[in-house]
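Reading is simple: each integer encodes one residue's backbone shape. The lines below illustrate:
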Amino acid sequence: MEGGVAYVYLCYGIHSLFNIVTNVRDVPHAVLIRGIKPVEGIETMLMRSNKTKVNDRIGIGPGNVSKLLGIHFFQSGESLNGKKIWLEDRGIKIQESDIVSGPRVGVDYAGADALLPYRFRLSI
């Protein structure tokens, strides 16, 4: 699909994994969202995850991300400019020096490409 939509697929028949499509139609580029730091809507996220309080691991892992955000595989193809799933600019500025890259995870089948530094996280 065209960039700007959600690509959500089912992993192990259990977990919905949320990706952001980033290129033109028929070029399979997407970013898997592997973690979030909850700052808003925490009560809803706790309810969705059957937890009573926030801990350091609540937003870690792509399956947890989708669960916390209420994203399901049947929403694949949704516009990220819509009312169900959206991206918004909160004016947060990230310094380039705070972005850390490393090898991809869980893609051993990709051979040498598995070692490319395409996994990004914030060091702050």
Q: What stands out?
A: The helical segments are 42-48, 62-69. Strands lie at 6-11, 15-21, 30-32, 99-102, 119-122. The chain has two domains: 1-83, 95-124.
